[in-house]
Every structure is written in C-alpha cells, then in structure tokens.
Amino acid sequence: MQQIVNFLIKYKNTLLFLFLFLLSVFFTIQSHSYHKSKFISSANFLTGGIYSWVNNIDMYFNLKEYNERLVDENKFLRENLAALSEKELDSVFLDTISYDAPYKFITAKVIANRYSRLDNFLLVNKGENDSVATDFGVITSRGIVGIVDETSNNYSRVISILNTNSAINVKLKKTNHFGTLKWNGKDPNIVQVEEIPRLAPVKKGDTIHTEGRSLIFPKGIPVGVVENYQLKNNQNYYDINVRLFNDMTNIGYVYLIKNNNQEEIKSLESNE
Predict the structure, then answer these.
(1) How far apart (Å, rounded) are the C-alpha atoms in residues 167 and 75?
(2) Whole-model pTM above 0.70?
(3) CATH assignment of 105-261, given 3.30.450.40, 2.40.10.340, 1.10.10.60, 3.40.50.720?
(4) Which of 34, 93, 130, 256 shows its CA 20 to 30 Å from the CA of 225?
C-alpha cells in the first residue's frame, strides 16, 4: 500500500495532466457531434474486430463439433431423400401423405482405411452398441464406399468397393440398364462395371448410380462416371471403367445405411 502512495506522490503532476487531458477529450466529444460520430465509429471498428477475432478462435477450436453437426444434418436430409426416392410420390401430394422412411442412416467416423491391396477394408467407430449390423451399406456425401461385413460392440469392418470380392448392383442413371460393380485391383480411382448389355446407349461421362434392387443400398446413390468403355465383336456386354466420385484414399465420415424392411423381405424370400 505504501508503494502505491509513493507512486501517486511521485507522479502526481503527470497523473493530474492525464486526468485533465482525458476529461477535456471527453467534453470535446460530448459537445461536438462530428467528434462524437468519429469516436463511436472507431469504437465499433475496434470492438467488432475483437469480437471477430474471438469468434474465429472459437470456431477453430470447435471445428470438430461443427463438422459433426453437419454430418448429423446431412444424415437427416439423406433419410428424407431416401424416403422420397423409395415412394416415388407425385410432388403435389407430398404435403398430404405421411409415410415411414424405409432407410435409417447412422453417422460414423473412419478410423482405418486400406486401399493399396487387392482386398481392402475400412474400420469405423460404430458397432453393435449403435445398432449396426452386417449388410449395412456405407456411403459418404459423394458416393458409395462399401458394405459392413463384421461388427463388434463398438466398431465395424467394411468391405471396401476397392475389394476384388465386392460385387454391387448398379445402373446407368439415364436408363434402366443395370450391371455389377467390381474392381480389378489396379487403380483406386477406377472401378469396373460388368454385364451392361450391348444394346445400352453407353457414353463417356454417363453417371453410374446404385440400382436399388438389393436390400442394402437405396437406388440413386452416386458411384461415378464412365471413364471409357469397349465392346468387342464377339461380346454381348460392355467392359466399362468408371471413375469414382469418392476419393477412396481420403475418407473421413461415412453414413451406415440400415434397410428397415430387410428382415421382412428376407423372411418372405426364404419361404419361396
């Protein structure tokens, strides 16, 4: 306390000058509208910059939370889109008809991703405790990824489409000609489509989607575009190379797709 008193005594003239100076500035601003407007404008600029800086820091440290929110929002939208696609309702009646979505989407994070071998897999951080089971389809916002083949309590293994044992039903977007999506084990950006008949009007740049006749994927999930194709004289089906929409070497978050009607359909098929 004595040090503070000594400081005030030592610098009393300087402190008095600063006090009177600030007081005069205050009265000048209050009594002149021009000075007052300039001061307010400067103060707003300063505080706005501070708030912007603080907000940027907050956003940086909460990027994970914001990304997870976006994933959950996309999950909600995909469930609704899948329901609309499945029902194929006339848009005039959408507001008056209620229905249950045939597909449920579960968000998950990829914790391991192999893409340099012939038989590649991914691991995701959702399992049986999250109601994940085998034969769940796996996609991203850009396209198809694979199918769940094994689960534990907290994790699941996914057969990647970059797996020579993978076979998924797909079709040309602009027609109903369908075939089988496979991989020859070479380029992780290029997969192959087999069994598209020679009568199909295939062109470079055509979009390939899921075909929707399986119990795993809804129809209309994007796969990629036709990179090139060939048809030999003695062949009845095209050999088609498809460039994937997904970068399979860089997969972060995924959606696991559950077909709510799968068990019912399987039970009917088993009775045939």
Answers:
(1) 25
(2) no
(3) 2.40.10.340
(4) 256
